[in-house]
Amino acid sequence: MPKPPATGCGAAPVLKERGQREVFCGLTGIIWLHRKMQDAFFLVVGSRTCAHLLQSAAGVMIFAEPRFATAILEETDLAGLADAQDELDNQVAQLLARRPDIRQLFLVGSCPSEVIKLDLGRAAERLSAVHAPHVRVLNYSGSGIETTFTEGEDACLAAMVPALPEANAKSLLIAGALPDVVEDQMLGLLRAMGIEDVACLPARRADDLPAVGPDTVVALVQPFLGETLAALTRRGARHIEAPLPFGDEGTTAWLWAVAREMGVDANTFARVTEAPRARARRAIAAASGTLNGKSVFFFPDSQLEIPLARFLTRECGMDAVEVGAPFIHRAIVGPDLDLLPEGPTISEGQDVDKQLDRARAARPDLTVCGLGLANPLESEGLTTKWAIELVFTPVHFYEQAGDLAGLFARPLRRKEKLRLEAAE
């Protein structure tokens, strides 16, 4: 198991910043959630801007029929001159008549619907009563006001928890959306250890919703699920604290925490993980030559920053200058903070102008930031990595460890190639 450094960042002071922030809208979470939940539909109650955002982010062709849409609030709705609730009921009825495959319908709040205080919670209760038992209607907020984009998934999963059935026996619940291929790899490793009773939130289909109760233990695969964890805890579930499963070290520590909780012996664990661990180490080594000795600066964006900084410093040889996160849930990222070697500034929240000044002064080899900051920083000679790509790309567990390291190595290799071409 990973050995903590002599002095980690678990007790390091946190620079708390409260100023102007660069954030991406929480509606973006729909892009990966609608692919994960195969019989769910996400109806955003918002403006045409919301519709354009989703269309652009998803890259959906105009004649495709995805499982998300926008119920457009017109000027009359925003002015309070029309009953938006009646119009919403009509749109939901038309949608369900046209798409009988829908089993879960999420009414997703947006900045416009929240500004006019449209009560989507009440609408979800009313529509659930109308369309039950075939369709369950739930509500959550995907608004980009004072949130970061991964909170869309957190809000969605937290909204599902109160409706989950009651569990009467010990069970393992894995919380956090993973690409199907990665989830299958994870479940295969757990089955090989003899852990069969495993459920996932979100489930791929509404009929497979996990049960939860006082004998449920929860392992998170995403660090941004603070509200989901709180909702599961209120249902009696108990959290398994562990580093997040990024890279060889993080994956092994996460799996061992789960295995130990479920009564797996050390010999069985070693037998199951030996081969994939070796593959992960070889794959990381192929990219870490580019990363070793380089400095990295994280702007707060996805909430993946702390576990990724742990991966880059301990497994790829990078030096972290600053690790900024929008929010720091110590119950979730505490184990990663303990493993992160002492040295970087740990910041929570953002005052973007002050942080830009610190990044310019540090001149890191690699800056991980949002889309809005990347091009300006590139124009100043800093090499950047889009934070959002780390959410959309499969990066968890052993088989993706090399790809994860490669995502950070690629911009550095590109810069070096351009430098050599310019010198010729």
TrEMBL record:
<keyword id="KW-0004">4Fe-4S</keyword>
<comment type="similarity">
    <text>Belongs to the BchN/ChlN family.</text>
</comment>
<dbReference type="GO" id="GO:0019685">
    <property type="term" value="P:photosynthesis, dark reaction"/>
</dbReference>
<feature type="binding site">
    <location>
        <position position="50"/>
    </location>
    <ligand>
        <name>[4Fe-4S] cluster</name>
    </ligand>
</feature>
<feature type="binding site">
    <location>
        <position position="25"/>
    </location>
    <ligand>
        <name>[4Fe-4S] cluster</name>
    </ligand>
</feature>
<comment type="pathway">
    <text>Porphyrin-containing compound metabolism; bacteriochlorophyll biosynthesis (light-independent).</text>
</comment>
<feature type="domain" description="Nitrogenase/oxidoreductase component 1">
    <location>
        <begin position="25"/>
        <end position="380"/>
    </location>
</feature>
<dbReference type="GO" id="GO:0016730">
    <property type="term" value="F:oxidoreductase activity, acting on iron-sulfur proteins as donors"/>
</dbReference>
<dbReference type="InterPro" id="IPR005970">
    <property type="entry name" value="Protochl_reductN"/>
</dbReference>
<dbReference type="InterPro" id="IPR050293">
    <property type="entry name" value="LIPOR_BchN/ChlN"/>
</dbReference>
<protein>
    <recommendedName>
        <fullName>Light-independent protochlorophyllide reductase subunit N</fullName>
        <ecNumber>1.3.7.7</ecNumber>
    </recommendedName>
</protein>
<dbReference type="GO" id="GO:0051539">
    <property type="term" value="F:4 iron, 4 sulfur cluster binding"/>
</dbReference>
<dbReference type="GO" id="GO:0016636">
    <property type="term" value="F:oxidoreductase activity, acting on the CH-CH group of donors, iron-sulfur protein as acceptor"/>
</dbReference>
<dbReference type="InterPro" id="IPR000510">
    <property type="entry name" value="Nase/OxRdtase_comp1"/>
</dbReference>
<keyword id="KW-0560">Oxidoreductase</keyword>
<dbReference type="Pfam" id="PF00148">
    <property type="entry name" value="Oxidored_nitro"/>
</dbReference>
<keyword id="KW-0408">Iron</keyword>
<keyword id="KW-0149">Chlorophyll biosynthesis</keyword>
<comment type="subunit">
    <text>Protochlorophyllide reductase is composed of three subunits; BchL, BchN and BchB. Forms a heterotetramer of two BchB and two BchN subunits.</text>
</comment>
<comment type="function">
    <text>Component of the dark-operative protochlorophyllide reductase (DPOR) that uses Mg-ATP and reduced ferredoxin to reduce ring D of protochlorophyllide (Pchlide) to form chlorophyllide a (Chlide). This reaction is light-independent. The NB-protein (BchN-BchB) is the catalytic component of the complex.</text>
</comment>
<keyword id="KW-0067">ATP-binding</keyword>
<feature type="binding site">
    <location>
        <position position="111"/>
    </location>
    <ligand>
        <name>[4Fe-4S] cluster</name>
    </ligand>
</feature>
<keyword id="KW-0411">Iron-sulfur</keyword>
<dbReference type="GO" id="GO:0036070">
    <property type="term" value="P:light-independent bacteriochlorophyll biosynthetic process"/>
</dbReference>
<keyword id="KW-0077">Bacteriochlorophyll biosynthesis</keyword>
<dbReference type="GO" id="GO:0005524">
    <property type="term" value="F:ATP binding"/>
</dbReference>
<keyword id="KW-0602">Photosynthesis</keyword>
<keyword id="KW-0479">Metal-binding</keyword>
<dbReference type="GO" id="GO:0046872">
    <property type="term" value="F:metal ion binding"/>
</dbReference>
<keyword id="KW-0547">Nucleotide-binding</keyword>
